[in-house]
Amino acid sequence: MSDPIIRMTDIEKHFGSVIALAGVTVEFHPGECHCLLGDNGAGKSTFIKTMSGVHKATAGTIEFEGKAMNFADPRDAIAAGIATVYQDLAMIPLMSVSRNFFMGNEPIKKIAGISLFDHELANEVTMSEMSKMGINLRGPDQAVGTLSGGERQTVAIARAVHFGAKVLILDEPTSALGVRQTANVLATVDKVRKQGIAVVFITHNVRHAMAVGDRFTVLNRGKTFGTAVRGEITPEQLQDMMAGGEELATLEGSLGGTV
Amino acid sequence: MSDAINSDERIKQTSRFRQALIRPELGGMVGTVAVFTFFLLFAFDSGMFNSQGVMNWSVVSAQFMIIAVGACLLMIAGEFDLSVGSMIGFAGMMIAIFSITLGWPMWMAIIITFVICVAFGAINGFIVVRTGLPSFIVTLATLFILRGFTIFIPQTLERKTIIGGIREAAEGDWLAPIFGGKILTGLFQWLGDAGIISVFTRGNLEGQPVVNGIPMLIVWALALVVFGHILLTRTRFGNWIFASGGDAQAARYAGVPVDRVKIMMFMFTAFCATVFAICQVMEFGSAGADRGLLKEFEAIIAVVIGGALLTGGYGSVIGAALGALIFGVVQQGLFFANVESSLFRVFLGVILLFAVVLNTYIRRMITGER
Ligand SMILES: Nc1ncnc2c1ncn2[C@@H]1O[C@H](COP(=O)(O)OP(=O)(O)OP(=O)(O)O)[C@@H](O)[C@H]1O
Ligand SMILES: [Mg+2]
C-alpha cells in the first residue's frame, strides 16, 4: 500500500472558546477517495480548511509527502497542488466566470516584456472545462452572479479539478446539483482518483459516499468517530455511524426506510 | 448535444445590446457626450473652446483624473481613502519645507516626499488590513493627522502657513520639470506661427502662443489612466484587485494575497496624491497648508460617476477618467458661461445621486437581475 500523501495527526482547532476540532487523526492516500462524513457542526469543514491553508491548527501535526508542512495561507497549499471546493464556494459574483476560474492562478502571457493576463487562454479553458462537467455557459465573460447555485458549484468544482494536481478537496460539492451534474461530479471524482490524485470528499449523502469512496471517516463533535474501508461496511452501518447510532433507527421506521 | 455546446438556445437576441449596456463606463460615456453637447450648444462663444479655454478645462480635468485613478483602483479593491486631500496639502508642504526651509536640492525634496507620502499610504493600508476596521474611519483619522501636521510644521518652522519661492528653487533641477514642465512647446509655437491658435499680440511675450505647450500634469494624468486601465483589466494583479474588493474571504480562499493588494492600492492612492501635489506646487510656486481641501470627495465622486460601486469589486479606470473629465468640464464651463459657481455644487449633488442610482441598477443586472 502506498504512503499517505497527507497525514494529519491529532489536529485541534479552537475558535476562541469554541473547540471545533478536538484531536482528529486521518491519513489520505494518493489514488483514493476518502469520504469525510458527520453531522452538521461535526468539524468537517474546519478540518479540511486546516489542510488547505485557510486555518492554522491550534495543535497537531500535518505531514505532506512525508515532510512536516506549515501552510501560511491558501496560496502555499494551492502551489503544493492542493485544490479545494469550499462549502461556500469562494466565487465572486461580480466577476466573470473565467476571471473566477483563474482567480489566484491567472495564466500569463508576455507582451513586450510585460506579463499580461492571458484572457483568451482563460476563456478557452473555462469553456471547455465547464462543458466537460455538463454545463454550457452562455459565455466565459458571464458574471458568476447570473449563474444558478448548481452552476456556480460546478464552476468551483471544475476549477478545483483543473488545479488540484495532487490533492482535491470537495466540501459538499453535490448539495445543489441536479441528477446529471451529480453523476458528472461522481464520475470526475472517479476519474481523478484513477489518475493518482488523493480525493477528500465531504458529503451527507451515503449513496454518493458509497458510490465513490474507498475509505470513510466519520467525525463527531470534533473527534474521529471511526474509519472504515470500502467493502467492510454496509450503507446501513455507515448511516448509523454518521448519525451516532440509535436515534436514526427510530426515525427510520416512521419514514419507511427512505432516509 | 454537440450543438448545445456551441450555441445556447437560452439566450435572447437582445442580450448583445444589453451586454453593451452593462459596463461600468456607460454612465461616464453618456455623461461626457451630454456635457460636451450642452456646452457646445450653449457656451460655444464663451471662449471655452479656444486654445486657452480647452487648456483651462483640460488642466482641471487632469487634476481630477490623477487622484481619481488612485481612488478608483482603491475603491475596486474595496477600500476608501479619505486622507487624499490632506495628503495633497501635506506633500506640497513637505516639498516646500525640504527645498526652501532646509535648502535641499529639489530632486531630493521630491524623492523624499514621495517616500514619506507612500509610506503614509502603506500605514493606512496596514492599519486597515490588520485591524479589519472600515477604511472610512482609519483614513478619516489620517485626514486630521496629516492636515494638522501640514499646518503645524510650517507654523513652527517659518511662522507662516504659505511658503513660496518654489519655482525659483526648482530652476535648473533635473527632476522638477517632470512635474512642472511642458511638452510639445515647439508644436505649439508652430501652431501659433501658422495662425491656428492665438498668440500674444502685445507685451514682452509678443508672438508667442498663449498656450505654449502641454503641461506635464496632463501627461501624468493620461499616463496614470493608461497604466491603471492596463493594470486593472490586463494583468494578474488586476484580477486580484477585483477579487479583493468583490469578496475578500473568497479571494483569500483562492490564494489571492488580499492584504498585500489592499496595502499596495493605498500606497498607489498616496502616490497619485503626491503627483498631484508636486505638479500643483510647481505650477503655483508655493505650498499652502489649506491645499487639497475636499479633494478626497471629488475623487470619489469622479470614480462613482465613472461607474464604480462604492461596495467594491466593480468599476473602471476609463470610467473614472471620464468622470473626472465631466467634473472638470462642468466646473470650468459654468465659469465660462458666467453661471453662479455655487450652482456647480448643486450639479455635483444631482449627478452623484443619479450615478449611484444608475450603478445600483447596473449591479442588479450583472448579479442575477434580481
Ligand atoms: N470561524 C469560526 N469561528 C467560530 N466557530 C467556528 C468557526 N468555524 C467553525 N466554527 C464552529 O466549529 C464547529 C464545526 O464547524 P464546521 O463548519 O467545521 O462543521 P461541518 O462539519 O462542516 O458542518 P456542516 O455539515 O454543517 O457543513 C461548529 O460548531 C462551528 O460553529
Ligand atoms: Mg461544512
Structure description:
The complex is a heterodimer of chains A (259) and B (370). Chain A is α/β, with parallel strands linked by helices. Chain A has nine helices and twelve strands. Chain A has helices spanning 44-51, 74-79, 97-101, 119-132, 149-163, 179-194, 206-212, 235-243, 246-255, and strands at residues 6-15, 18-28, 33-37, 59-64, 67-68, 82-85, 108-111, 114-117, 167-171, 198-202, 215-220, 223-229. In chain A, the strands form three sheets. In chain A, strands 6-9-10-3-11-12 form a six-stranded mixed beta sheet, sandwiched between helices. The radius of gyration of chain A is 19 Å and the shape is globular. Chain A starts with 5 loop residues before the first strand and ends with a helix. The mean pLDDT of chain A is 87. Chain B has a single domain (26-359), classed as ABC transporter involved in vitamin B12 uptake, BtuC (Orthogonal Bundle). In chain B, α4 (51-76) runs antiparallel to α16 and α12 crosses α14. The two termini of chain B are 30 Å apart. The A-B interface holds A 52, 54, 73-75, 77-79, 84, 86, 88-95, 99, 102-106, 108, 115-117, 119, 131, 136-138, 143, 145-146 and B 4-5, 8, 10-11, 15, 230, 234-236, 238-240, 242-243, 246-247, 249-257, 309, 313-314, 363, 366-369. The structure holds adenosine-5'-triphosphate and magnesium ion. Magnesium ion (MG) is lined by residues 44-45, 87, 171 of chain A.
